[in-house]
């Protein structure tokens, strides 16, 4: 929601809307605007239906979130923010099972309020975006992590601190804090942690060992996480289905080789792990259930693509973004070796790859019959010939190819306005989203929009640099209106 009225009017309308929906089971609210800020949810806590099972709010002040928890605790009774000694049994009226909040601060007080009021929670997802370094007595510590143990049914936990361009993190949490968490929440099946720079292999390994049913393990920005954390991963966490290690600079191919022994792995995300090389791709090729692979920023080469191209791995989503040592030849190795990937690949990201040109796009159009989403943003050697090739693929229905639904050519500076004829009807009949930012189309937005979207009102043109599909409002940056 975006504000068009004063905060008072906005809150009144929001309250009226919620009061008119007394049987809601799932509610997600994202509010943005100039006048309406995090205090817009002040009146929400009085209007939430007791039938709610899933609640997601953004943005929210920590203090408002605590008051909201008090609402869940005892219907009609509101405790002071500091009165945590009175956290007794929750109100039986509320059966909330999933809570997701984007806040200004995650603190011990907040965690204690949540666990004291909603011990029946199954999923807890908290993200904060502090503007400045939190005071030591108001940040998250061991106390808050231990309090999570009161939610004995908790199977999914996400704690993320997101601060772009600012070095703000959970500085009071080290390995001991994660030890306490792993002992308190042994039933976790999904863990997502971001912003814990003081936690090392020992802390992360304790989660892998203690949570015996762990299926999803995601760590972001862990500068002390290395291959050692996965030394015994096959013995302790063979149930792993999804592993995401984003921006973990000490992770190398050795960790991937260990993960290659996890036969149930379906998702492997190694984005911005720059020490990943070709040596682990044979192990990746042995993962018969793998459907999603992210090698963005890895040090893989054309030779490594050959291993993937010959394998039977049913990959549907592949990102090679920023892999500067992969060229047109590597894409040929990937797709011209009769591997399973040519039949299954539906989403491909080749953004920011200087070695990619029209030759690679021609290979893709010839080989990838299931492709529905393609990103070639900032591929400076891609020309109008690539757009023509993709358009021709779309028209050859007899070849059994699926139609592209999303295409991103943002900052493909070699494209000319002549490509407009290939982007217009009847080409790309199934396209729903097209990224054209920082191209020669940007200076002719009205003409381009009229030409491309005239007979396709369902098609979204993005000139603002979004990824494949504009953000839905839950990402960090504010979504643009198109």
Short description:
Residues 7-471 form the F-box/LRR-repeat protein 15-like leucin rich repeat domain. The chain is α/β, with parallel strands linked by helices. The protein has helices spanning 7-19, 62-73, 108-117, 142-147, 175-184, 201-210, 233-236, 253-259, 281-284, 302-309, 328-335, 341-344, 358-367, 384-395, 420-423, 445-453; strands at 26-30, 54-60, 98-103, 123-128, 156-161, 190-194, 216-220, 242-246, 267-269, 292-294, 317-319, 347-349, 373-375, 406-408, 433-435, 460-462.
Structure in words:
- By secondary structure, the protein is of the alpha/beta class.
- The chain is built from 16 helices and 16 strands.
- The chain has a 16-stranded parallel beta sheet with strand order 1-2-3-4-5-6-7-8-9-10-11-12-13-14-15-16, with helices on one face.
- Helix 10 runs parallel beside helix 11, helix 11 (328-335) runs parallel beside helix 13 and helix 13 (358-367) packs parallel to helix 14 (384-395).
- The longest helix has 13 residues, at 7-19.
- The chain is globular, with a radius of gyration of 25 Å.
- Residues 74-92 and 474-482 have low confidence and may be disordered.
């Amino acid at each position: 929601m975006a504000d068009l009225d004063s905060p008072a009017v906005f809150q009144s309308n929001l309250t009226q809307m919620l009061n008119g929906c007394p049987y809601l089971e799932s509610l997600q609210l994202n509010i943005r605007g100039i006048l309406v800020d995090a205090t817009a949810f002040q009146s929400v806590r009085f209007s939430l239906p007791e039938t709610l099972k899933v609640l997601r709010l953004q943005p929210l002040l920590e203090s408002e979130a605590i008051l909201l928890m008090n609402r869940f605790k005892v219907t009609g009774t509101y405790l002071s923010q500091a009165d945590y000694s009175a956290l007794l049994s929750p109100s039986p009226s509320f059966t909330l099972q999933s809570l997701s909040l984007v806040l200004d601060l995650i603190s011990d007080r907040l965690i204690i309020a949540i666990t004291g009021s909603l011990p029946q929670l199954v999923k807890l997802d908290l993200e904060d975006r502090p503007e400045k370094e939190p005071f030591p007595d108001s940040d998250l510590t061991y106390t808050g992590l231990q309090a999570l143990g009161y939610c004995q049914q908790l199977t999914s936990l996400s704690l993320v601190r997101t601060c772009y361009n600012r070095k703000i993190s959970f500085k009071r949490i080290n390995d001991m804090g994660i030890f306490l968490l792993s002992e308190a929440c042994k039933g976790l099946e999904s863990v997502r942690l971001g912003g814990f720079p003081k936690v090392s292999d020992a802390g992360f390994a304790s989660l892998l060992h203690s949570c015996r049913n762990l299926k999803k393990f995601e760590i972001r920005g862990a500068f002390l996480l290395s291959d050692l954390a996965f030394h015994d991963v096959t013995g302790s966490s063979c149930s792993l289905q999804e592993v995401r290690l984003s921006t973990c600079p000490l992770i190398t191919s050795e960790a991937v080789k260990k993960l290659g022994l996890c036969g149930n792995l379906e998702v492997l995300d190694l984005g911005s792990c720059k020490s990943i090389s070709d040596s682990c791709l044979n192990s990746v090729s042995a993962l018969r259930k793998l459907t999603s692979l992210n090698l963005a920023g890895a040090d893989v080469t054309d030779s490594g693509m050959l291993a993937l191209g010959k394998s039977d791995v049913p990959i549907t989503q592949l990102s090679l973004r920023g892999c500067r040592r992969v060229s047109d030849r590597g894409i040929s190795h990937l797709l011209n070796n009769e591997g399973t990937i040519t039949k299954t690949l539906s989403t491909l990201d080749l953004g920011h790859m200087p070695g990619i040109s029209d030759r690679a796009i021609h290979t893709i159009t010839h080989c990838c019959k299931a492709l529905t989403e393609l990103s070639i943003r900032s591929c400076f050697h891609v020309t109008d010939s690539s757009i023509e090739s993709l358009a021709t693929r779309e028209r050859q229905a007899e070849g059994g190819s699926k139609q592209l639904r999303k295409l991103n050519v943002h900052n493909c500076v070699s494209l000319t306005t002549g490509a407009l004829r290939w982007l217009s009807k009847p080409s790309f009949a199934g396209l729903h989203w097209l990224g054209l930012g920082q191209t020669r189309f940007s200076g002719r937005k009205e003409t381009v929009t009229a030409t491309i979207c005239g007979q396709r009102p369902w098609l979204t043109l993005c000139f603002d640099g979004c990824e494949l599909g504009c953000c839905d409002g839950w990402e960090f940056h504010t979504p643009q209106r198109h």
